[in-house]
Design a protein that fits this description.
Elements (H helix, E strand, L loop, with lengths): L4 E3 L2 E3 L3 E3 L21 E3 L16 E4 L2 E4 L8 H12 L5 E6 L4 H11 L6 E5 L16 H12 L6 E4 L7 H10 L4 E4 L3 E4 L1 E2 L4 E2 L5 E5 L4 H12 L6 E4 L5 H10 L3 E4 L2 H4 L3 H16 L13
Parallel strand pairs: 3-16, 4-7, 7-8, 8-9, 9-10, 10-15, 15-16
Antiparallel strand pairs: 1-2, 5-6, 6-14, 11-14, 12-13
Helix pairs in contact: 3-4, 4-5, 5-6, 6-8
Length: about 300
């Protein structure tokens, strides 16, 4: 039985990674879990300069999940290359660097800097607000998504995964747009915009007023969007959104995902991603699948 998957020419030992922003760059989780047991580690978003993120409070619990408005706080690309990449190189896993920015130039600067680093793939977070366009996210306009994809591809030496926002009218249109821009793979979904109000204090729970909802509550929406995106493009899809068990992950794969990413579950179960990988293997044994590829998109 073959657990390996090939994502845009990069072979992972199994189809499981972790969602950006839920695993840091792996160091804190390495005390609990052997990172070598993951197909890939996806880092927290990194920008061309350090970002402080949003004011606190910036995390809130919701029914069957959580909401965050951390604001992509990160140490910047210089410290990241000096500290985090060497740490991750100690483990037998693929390294996916999540890239964020506030302008096309920001993204390209980080991607160019990473072209000389020993990392395997780049994941471009286009849910960031495009400052020059009045704060509308790159990932909410198909034309902008296509243009940012084309721009980063000019500088990228590694395969480029475009991470799609669910806060759109048509996820299929967004998938087709980044494919047209030259994306090597897509990942989805990012968080869904939500809001929570403290009725006793009559104030917003998050200082930012709105935040990204994640966790089991969004899983059915994510499965639907993965299915739609996978059927709209020929690119490999990394499915995420509320995956907390092997059953959730298998559902994503049957819908069309070639790999999966575990996010919010990491916060309450550091072993979640490893348990998902083991559970996929058990499912394959039970139902006679020889490879992960046989499962991908087999529910039509």
């Amino acid at each position: 039985m073959n657990m390996k998957v090939n994502i845009a020419g990069v072979e992972w030992k199994n189809p499981v990674t972790v969602a950006s922003g839920t695993f840091g760059s792996g160091e804190e989780f390495s005390e609990f879990v052997d990172l070598s047991r993951l197909g890939a580690v996806t880092t927290k978003g990194v920008a061309n300069i350090p970002w402080e993120g949003n004011p606190t409070p910036r995390v809130a619990e919701t029914a069957s999940g959580m909401m965050n408005a951390v604001g992509l706080q990160n140490p910047g690309i210089d410290l990241f290359c000096r500290r985090d990449i060497p740490f991750l190189k100690q483990f037998d896993t693929k390294i996916i660097v999540n890239v964020c920015g506030k302008s096309t130039e920001d993204y390209c600067e980080v991607v160019e800097r990473l072209s000389n680093e020993d990392v395997d793939m780049l994941e471009i977070n286009i849910s960031c607000p495009n400052v020059k366009e009045g704060g509308i996210a790159f990932g909410q306009n198909p034309k902008a998504a296509e243009e940012i994809t084309r721009a980063v591809k000019k500088y990228a030496k590694q395969p480029v995964i475009m991470k799609l926002s669910p806060n759109v009218t048509s996820i299929a249109d967004m998938a087709r747009a980044v494919e047209a821009g030259g994306a090597d793979a897509i990942s989805l979904i990012n968080t869904i915009t939500g809001m929570k109000i403290d009725i006793h204090r009559r104030k917003f729970l998050l200082a930012n007023k709105t935040g990204g909802v994640s966790g089991p509550a969004i899983h059915p929406i994510a499965v639907r969007m993965v299915y739609e995106a996978a059927h709209a493009v020929r690119l490999p899809v990394i499915g995420m959104g509320g995956i907390a068990s092997a059953e959730d992950a298998v559902e994503m794969i049957l819908a069309g995902a070639s790999a999966v990413s575990v996010g919010t579950a990491n916060f309450y179960n550091p072993l979640a991603a490893v348990e998902v990988a083991e559970g996929i293997e058990s499912y394959m044994e039970r139902y006679g699948f020889e490879s992960v590829g046989e499962m991908v998109g087999c529910v039509e």
